[in-house]
Specification:
Blueprint: H1 9-26, E1 27-28, E2 33-34, H2 37-62
Antiparallel strand pairs: 1-2
Helix pairs in contact: 1-2
Amino acid sequence: MENKNNVPVFTFTITAIIVGAALYKQFDFVTLKFEKPALAIVYFIVFVFSIFVLIKNFKKRAGK
């Protein structure tokens, strides 16, 4: 049998949507600052990681 390393795409998609929405809500467009900068950094790291995994999985599937 073939050993497949399937990335849970659905989970990372939902995570990216939720964290992206939280980042958007925390950003104050008048002052161009986040309400809680430390939490925004954590959200941004998780958001970028989720997008990275989704893109990596998409490229892997497109190459087949």
